[in-house]
Amino acid sequence: MQVNMIAAVCIALLSLGTAPLAHAAAAAATPAELDSSLRISCEDEAAGAEVFVNGKFRGECPVDLRVAAGQLILRVSKPAGAEQERVFEQTIRMGADSAKRIEVILSAPQLTAAAQRVRQARIDAEAARQARAADERRRTMEDKLARTRKAAAAGDAAAMLALAEFHASGNGGPPDPALAHEWLAKAAAAGEPAAMAQLGERYEKGEHVSQDAAQSLAWYRKAAEAGDPTGQAGVGAAYFNGIGVARDYAQARQWFERAAAAGNGRAMNGMGNMYFAGTGGLARDPVQAVAWWEKAMENGSVRPIGMLASVYGNAPEGVPYNPDRALALAKKGAELGNADAMAALGHYYAKGIILPRNFDLAVHWSRKSAELGNATAMVNLGSFYTAGTGVPKDPAMAASWFQRAAAAGSPHGMFALGLSYRDGLGVPKDRDQAMAWLRKAKEGGHEQADMALRQIEVGRF
């Protein structure tokens, strides 16, 4: 009896202990929450990619997964080199007891997270290096500036010029044109040739000072006599153009030659102008003119760009016709605001040379050039108003442009103005004025002026 009772108790205890264990095993095999199916499909290069769900590795693609309902973050990745990977990422909303299929299309190769961290570390290190270098440059500049100021205060002209350039450039702060000019004037007064030449340029152009031809020439001359090529070229230009001094081509040539020998582009341009016009004791030689203009361009001067655009398109004696270079130079010069280049463009459009004839554009470019002071363009614009080409016919407007060209020293402008007075076109008919301007045109080398004078003298007009 006792043995039977003990056996019954053991059976009961075993029964109570094994039931929970069996339930736990069943739960581990098929948890109630993993009631949804997710198929991750991969083809071609995506095959074998690693699949992560909510940050946990779940196998290689393609793969069928049991997942819980709710929001899932799917990430599929495959290496594409040492530092890159191809990735597919998607957020998925799974319902209870649902099934979904996701087709994986990997992205283009991109940096892995580790590679991104390495790259960012390099970027940060380079930024820090640049910051240290900038700080070192700042300290060096401040030290140099302090020493330059001390030298300038002690009367060092070169230091004064350096301060002028520092304040003009704005290195270390906003530019200060007024302070730059103050130091430039001090440097020039202290005998610094380069400062004298720069001051001459400022008075010539009216930069930070009132335009003053006499002051410009005075400072250019001081610089020139001290051996400065910019000053020498400035003096040559003053004599060549008769600005601030009587026109003297021999003097112009002397100064241009000295400056050109030192590599000054403006002087080389001046030599080209003298050869083209045949002045200063030089025979007219367009080929030599082009050689000097090209040399000026090689030495950084854009002054001759318009003249080169003109001669390559018109091919005067000995100069080869080069329409492609002519047009390229004319367009480039016009972009740079060169009046000669604009005049060349206007001429080409008016004549239908190189470019299709277009009188609207001919007037446009001629006017822009004329407004910048180009005498040739003034004459062309006057001719348009005389003929009514591209603009309404207007003899008075034509005569006004001829007057401006003549005042600028153009023999063609003088000739056209003389004819205007002869014929009473846009101005009152005046025989004396006509002959006076035609004589000036003849003195300037206009080939038709002499014949026009003779016709007036014999009473044909």
Could you explain how this protein is built, in words?
With about 450 residues, the chain is α+β, with helices and mostly antiparallel strands. Among the domains are: about 70 residues, Immunoglobulin-like (Sandwich); about 90 residues, Tetratricopeptide repeat domain (Serine Threonine Protein Phosphatase 5, Tetratricopeptide repeat), CATH 1.25.40.10. Helices cover about 60% and strands about 10% of the residues. It is built from 19 helices and eight strands. Strands 3-2-5-6-8 form a five-stranded antiparallel β-sheet. Helix 11 packs antiparallel against helix 12. The longest helix is centred in the N-terminal third of the chain and has 41 residues. The radius of gyration is 43 Å and the shape is elongated. It starts with a helix and ends with a helix. The N terminus is likely disordered.
| CATH class wording of the domain at 375-461 | Mainly Alpha
Biggest sheet record: 5 strands, antiparallel
Give helix and strand order, one letter per element, not per position: HEEEEEEEEHHHHHHHHHHHHHHHHHH
Distance between the termini: 165 Å
The coarse silhouette is elongated
Radius of gyration: 43 Å
What spatial order of strands do you see in the largest sheet? 3-2-5-6-8
Mean pLDDT: 91
Please tally the helical runs, counting DSSP H or I stretches of 4 or more residues: 19
Provide tags for this entry.
single chain; 461 residues; alpha+beta; Immunoglobulin-like; Serine Threonine Protein Phosphatase 5, Tetratricopeptide repeat; five-stranded antiparallel sheet; three-stranded mixed sheet; 19 helices
